[in-house]
Amino acid sequence: EDRMWVMELGNNITAITSKWDMKGPLVSNFTQVTELASLLIQVDLFKGTVDFGFDNDFSAENPVSQYSRGIVFWGGPLDERNTTGQEDDEEADELEESDGKLRKEFIKSEYLAGMEKQSEEDAHSGVNTYYFMTAIIGDVILGIVTQDALLALFSLAFVFFWLRINTRSWFLAYIGLLEIFFSIPIAWFIFTVVFQIEYFATLNSLALFVVAAIGADDIFIFMDAYKQSQYHVEILDDLETRMSWVYRRTGTAMAITSATTCAAFLCTLITPLSGLQSFGIFAAVVIFIDYVLVMTLFCTSVIIYHNRYENRAACGCCCPCGTIQPSNTEQAKLVLEQSDEEIQRDRVSEFFRNKVSGFIQTPLYRLAVGVVFLTWLSIAIWQASLLESTKESEQFLDENHPLQKSITILNKQFPTADDDLGLKVYYAWGLNEVDRKGVNRLLDPDFFGEPQYDSWFEFTPECQGEIIEFCDEMRADPKYKDLIKRKDGLGSVFCWVEELAAFNANPGAYSRKDRNQGDCNYVKQGTWKNGTDWQVDPANLSTIMPEFMAQKTCFGDDLTETISGRYSNEIGWDGNHMKYVAVSLESKELDPFGLDAESLTRREYDQFIEIRDKYLDSTRQCLGNVITTDLDEKFVFMNNQAIYVKTAIQSSVLGVVIAFVVLLISTRVFHLAFFASLSITAVLLSVVGTMVMLGWSLGSIESTLIGIIAGFSVDYVVHLAHAYEIASGDTYSRVTEAFSDLGISVFNGMVTSVVASIPLFFCQLQFFAKFGTFLCLTIAYSWIFANFGFMSVLAQLKIPLKKGKRFQP
Known about the structure:
This protein is mostly helical. Helix content is about 60%, strand content about 5%. The protein contains 26 helices and 11 strands. It has helices at about 1-15, 30-40, 90-110, 110-120, 135-165, 170-195, 205-230, 240-265, 275-310, 330-340, 345-360, 365-385, 400-410, 460-475, 495-505, 520-525, 540-550, 565, 600-615, 635-665, 670-695, 700-705, 710-715, 715-725, 730-755, 765-795; strands spanning about 425-430, 430-435, 450-455, 485, 490, 495, 570-575, 580-585, 625-630, 800-805, 805-809. The strands form 4 sheets. Strands 1, 6, 7, 8 and 9 form a 5-stranded antiparallel β-sheet that branches.
């Protein structure tokens, strides 16, 4: 009686759903429709007919769906050509690829603009519409990348005009920008031709912003030293003596900062991730080349500027001005010799020399600075301790972008429906781990290693039966319903061995032309299992496999799909031998597209590994190894996320240690190196704490940025430490001279970097937007802690410096 009731109910439901063909008038009784859908969604056998269009909260108790979705199927081919339907797999793939390109171009030219318009917030009064289409994502992202790249022009434009303001020369501003710009292609030549590194990571594009910040800073250091040289009468005998003083004074300081920054970026080599390694090496080379160009090209340009353009405002940037007579060096010496009073410098330099230096030398102000900094660092440490790995999918676009909104809604608001694509997880018999001997992705990004086949594996009849039993268990066992995606009430399993068995038992059940010409019910219902002749003798595989792989598969929605096409990754037939056999399961939670949180991916991964381990622990007919993997690199990304977190900690700590060692070697003063390293550590803690306050979690982007903080935060404190070390007099005199010589240079470097980072705030790609925020925070904190933290500590402790055999307080 119950069976009859179930069959009658099934027939009634089928009679209703068979009329759902998008034809005829719309249903007016929405309450009745949603009530039916809420009941169908509870039955595994029928939920696939309705679950695609309703969100996670939809149920019999809550028959309301805030979100809904639908699919538009685009037709093809779009051109007129003759096809026979008998094309082999390679020809069919070429035709499909050609159709895909034509279809994509047609949609882009005819519909994409309308789709974008429909996605605007004010397009409809009662509903918001978003689109998602895999085929055009690449083109949409490319357009976004191009748009974001144009923002770099605003950064370079600001750097140019700030150089012009501070050098007071169009000529030097042009040369400075040229020097910054040419650091990139020269570094690229060394990177690719000299070092033979072929892996050029996307991260490397950030080197433009790195060199814009650091390159401008070096120019300011050099130019300010040149300007300050006019106040030292003892070096103004001739231009050679003057430039020698400038060269030695700035060359050492910039060599220390460049070496420290390069070393900090090279800390990325401790990670096994090729992208980070490539970025670290390229950034280090760019910084080195920038240093060389400043000390050569820009130094030479300053001499030309001195001889022809200095103090000739009306002459412009490049007109053929004659040599200045007497020279500016001679004029500066004459002014100093004739003046009985101290020559006043520019207002900004005087501000740092008197106001900022005086502020630091006042004990009460130092106390206030100490209280503020210690309070802030306590908060920053507390917030940094709350940093945790991301638990949500990583966004690659701004959250308000229509494409990102659609991805977020699809990932978070909908259950996994029958029509959704799930991540395919493979169980492969006959394969061992890849031999990675000789793998170096930097030098050969296309070589991942050599596949290793298990010599113990044999595709025996007993092994075939065991694999089919494995497939049946994965489909039918209810304990896997939350792990394996369900379709028509059964787990979604790609098991070509059962199709091979059905074909061997009854070749007539299959067809080369159309699956409808065969007997797929015989295949799907497992009728072939009733006999004993379905197992394939391994000796007959060379005869059976070519014909079998050419048949149309009985599974899937595409009636024309061949067995070789459906199971292209699962069948390990090389034409002569069965090298391996694989079965794939579709994950219920994971899909091939999103960047899921490590915690979610690892939870699913562990369950798939548990299935493999349980199988390996059983008595088996299939000898040899079984590996579990995916081909969409989701598990690789999961592992990379763990490496990102580990690398962030290691790189940041190592960067601070390297900064300490370089400073100790260059200054030979322990407490200067130690306090400078504390300043860098304070910057690290402040940036990480602020990231937590901004709501960031530790994803791949954040981990990468934390790993390179030391590389960005060493410049200012190193410059001030070196200036303090080479100054003369007591502690307060050294503080005054350090601010007098480098206060304006460090300030200009900070302004350039901060303002240059602002255009990145408006990038739609999240990596660039977060990098802009990170750069702004790192530079701002570096400047604050170097000027007010590091210098206050020196002024407070008054630790003497040894000069020769004497200590100076």
